[in-house]
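Known limitations

Files may contain more than one protein. Parsers should not assume a single record per file. Below, a two-record file is shown to illustrate correct handling: read the sequence, read the token line, then continue until end of file.
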Amino acid sequence: MPGYLWSLKPMLFSQRYFRPIEQNKLVVEIPEAARRKLWAWLQANNSSLHIQRDPNDRWISQSSILEEVESELLVEHGWDRLPVSRSQSERPGELRLLVQHGNATWVFDTIELASRQMDDSDKEALRQKVNQIFELHDCPWRLSDGEFFKLDGDFIGARLATTAHDALTANRFAGAGDEFAKARQYLGAGDVREAIFYSGHSFESVMKVLTGLDHANGDKLIKELAQQGFFDDLPEAVRNGFTDQVLKALPFLRNKLGGHGQGAAVVNIPTVYGDLAIQIAAAFHNFLISKHLERSPPPPPEPLREPAARELADEIPF
């Protein structure tokens, strides 16, 4: 693994949301009980690391996830030491104080950095645990793809958005997943117009994958889905109404309120319309991916091979 200074890293939470945080448009709070649980989980899963910091040198450094996280925090923020009260700490222990008592945005930075140091299975375990803790403590943030996003306060809406993003990434709709993530990120930063735009864009990207049409607008894509039989399980008399009155709701929001093409009279869009666009996109994503899996189910897992008689005979009894 190359050292931190040798590779370009994506921005951390506090960097992505720097302006709205600085302007007090985005306030992040983490309950004390949640902080304790987050630190306990991070500490319990602080795996050791073997790092080649210089690609031109074969020397391997012995480290750990939390040691690397602390080092990277210092570099990213330009700190000489972590911003915690020395009167409360005896080194080493400053990272614990940062997570348990420090600025909440730095806690998110810490978790995102820890996620980058983990392999895929540990990263998924971290995502599930963090989201479980935040759900339990009514904290409106979720971790997805190693980054935090603010979700609406409604439990069903939050769960729907998270489920949709997981479905996109699990089923290889990478472009749509990136656009949906951007929509949630823009909404968290207070840019409702861009949130609506990318929600609509992600919906179109899913339809492009399903139909095979790379250069078509929303109306054409919806019609193509119908022509390819995606809605043949509906009575023929209601199919046109379903495509026109249901599936065109999100393209309407994007065209009228989204990032491009809105009239000069549209100045400020209330946040609830960004929430609405994201939740509609989430519902449509889950619906279309379910239809896709019905039509093209994944292959069944290969059955476990029974050991041959000779293999059983060769086993050493204990």
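...continuing to the second record:
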Amino acid sequence: MMRFLDVVFSFLGLVFLWPVMALLFVLGLFDTGAPLFKQVRVGRNKKPFTLVKFRTMKVDTASVASHLASSSSITKFGAFLRRTKLDELPQLWNVLKGEMSLVGPRPGLFNQEELTAERDALGVFAARPGVTGLAQVSNIDMSTPALLAQTDAQMMAALTVKTYFKYILMTVLGKGAGDRVI
């Protein structure tokens, strides 16, 4: 059922939000010259996939988890994208392709070994990674890997259609701050 909802909502999102995404893409060209950010992340069953987002940091920023990046790397436009969560919109393509779900554990990087080990021990990788989830709306980010993995496992064990919509609605309404940046 969740995959059906993912396909329907990601398709509708891409169809109806393409003008917004086109505008953000053009504004991103002026901001950084490279409006899309692509990064290999850990997917379902620990398989790699390329996550796509709108760029929020300078092009030369090191490829590390957000909580390890310097806040001086975030552009003014990028700060706006992060605050409004509009930087996540291109991930609708990842959802439509089946690499992600709208709701699930946020995909980590392969160099986040502690987080990967914690999630692996709790069976979190059996699920598709998500655009949002319980950890995101609860202000739990990748700087606390054990707590994040526990929260992800708790969410996946109790995920229903009702909680699926709850996490999406909470995200759209601005609940949660996203990953902390130093």
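Parsers that stop after the first record will miss the second one. For reference, the second record is described as follows. The chain has a mean pLDDT of 91.
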